[in-house]
Amino acid sequence: MIKILSSIALQKEAMWEEKLKIYDQLVAKCHRFKRKGKTVPYTSANGYMFSLLNKNGEIGIRFSKEVQEKYIKEFNSSIYRSHNAVMKGYVLIPDDMLHDLDNVANYLNEGYDYVMDLEPK
Q1: How far is CA 93 from CA 47, 90, 121, in A?
Q2: What is the pTM of this model?
Q3: 78-113: pLDDT as tens digits
Q4: Which of 8, 23, 39, 43 could form a disulfide with 53 if both were Cys (CB 3.0 to 4.6 A apart)?
Q5: d(CA 18, CA 22)
């Protein structure tokens, strides 16, 4: 039983590491900001986070409420959750979208533009 659990843990870690590589490739396509965080990778600007990779290897991007509702429908997605918390304003980026990082980079840049329009923290 312990062997099975450690095998599952290794598979989860390998999956997370693969998603981290994808997240890093995504952020590298955007030249106005850099990835931050070691254990919880994220991007931030103007005092606000606008994307992150959670422990489940899921990517979320922050948008205005109106845009969030639009993209949840358009992406056939949901509100993003991280560490058992609902992340208001964030949309879960479905895995099937990650095959076109240039397209997702446009959404990440849109998230950046959104937080840059907010009052600085």
Answers
A1: 22, 9, 26
A2: 0.92
A3: 999 998 899 999 999 999 999 999 999 999 999 999
A4: 23
A5: 6
Given a contact cutoff of 8 angstroms between Cβ atoms, the answer to whether 22 and 50 are in contact is no
The predicted-structure confidence for 31-77, as pLDDT tens digits, reads as follows 999 999 988 999 999 999 999 999 999 999 999 999 999 999 999 99
CA–CA dist 48, 89 (Å, integer): 12
Q: Is 73 exposed, middle or buried (0-12, 13-18, 19+ CB in 10 A)?
A: exposed
Run of H or E residues at 79: strand 79-82
On whether the CB atoms of residues 102 and 109 are closer than 8 A, the answer is no
State the pLDDT at residue 107: 98
Sequence-separated (6 or more) residues with CB below 8 Å from residue 7: none
